[in-house]
Inverse folding.
């Protein structure tokens, strides 16, 4: 995927969208050689890469830094969405646009904003300024303290109605897509059917217009993290730990490096 208009085309064609979250140039270079449609530089970087307990600790500087790294790693063709960090879209239009400017200059093609209530006007202003915006409803991790933890959202009728109404409001505000995180599959299906823009699900069932996972999670590199919605496509942690053990054994057994892996005086480099 190279441009935001492809989201609408894929929605019209009922063609599912694949999106992966990554945070660095090395990971992005792997995605560059894959058929993945879009890349999200998520504020989950605060947890996955920096060890914080939640996404609230992500800052504009952090998101800018990692967005630039991903752009360098993946090249100029890929479509990159960068998360607006905690509270930046609640500081007013001027502050929000400063953040948007930094993320776009760092290499993003669009920004993602959590929630709807109270900042639809800011979203409209950002879109009116020429920047595509992706919405995010359901479990919005920046509101984890309000929710009392990372919990399934939209269980009750009132919560479900609110999520559905917010999704419609976001579409009317001009967002090009909405992430639906950790809501019942039935609710995600209703929202997806009602909207004319694609939904991207995570922990929200198969009816969404696409799916997103964090790269480290789908590769099985996040040891001990096994929520219901996660399918791993590689035993990454086990394989990495086995490789490290082999390296350790070969170093201590003086099997690495070999003569072929060593330089000697008077021998030119290959």
């Amino acid at each position: 995927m190279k441009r935001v208009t492809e989201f609408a085309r894929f929605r019209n064609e009922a063609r599912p969208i694949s999106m992966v979250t990554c945070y660095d140039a090395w990971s992005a270079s792997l995605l560059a050689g894959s058929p993945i449609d879009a890349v999200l530089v998520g504020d989950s970087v605060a947890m996955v890469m920096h060890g914080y307990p939640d996404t609230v600790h992500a800052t504009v500087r952090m998101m800018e830094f990692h967005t630039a790294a991903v752009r360098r790693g993946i090249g100029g063709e890929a479509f990159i969405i960068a998360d607006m960090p905690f509270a930046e879209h609640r500081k007013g239009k001027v502050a929000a646009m400063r953040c948007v400017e930094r993320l776009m200059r760092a290499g993003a093609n669009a920004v993602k904003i959590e929630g709807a209530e109270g900042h639809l006007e800011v979203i409209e202003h950002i879109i009116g300024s020429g920047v595509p915006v992706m919405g995010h409803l359901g479990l919005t991790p920046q509101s984890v303290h309000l929710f009392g933890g990372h919990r399934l959202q939209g269980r009750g009728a009132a919560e479900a109605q609110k999520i559905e109404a917010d999704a419609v409001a976001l579409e009317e505000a001009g967002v090009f897509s909405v992430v639906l995180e950790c809501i019942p599959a039935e609710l995600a299906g209703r929202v997806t059917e009602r909207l004319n823009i694609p939904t991207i699900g995570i922990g929200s069932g198969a009816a969404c217009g696409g799916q997103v996972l964090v790269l480290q999670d789908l590769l099985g590199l996040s040891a001990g993290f096994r929520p219901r919605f996660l399918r791993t496509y590689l035993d990454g942690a086990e394989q990495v730990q086995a490789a490290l053990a082999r390296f350790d054994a070969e170093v201590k057994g003086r099997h690495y490096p070999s003569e072929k892996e060593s330089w000697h005086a008077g021998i030119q480099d290959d």
Notes: The mean pLDDT is 93. DSSP finds eleven helices and eight strands in the chain.
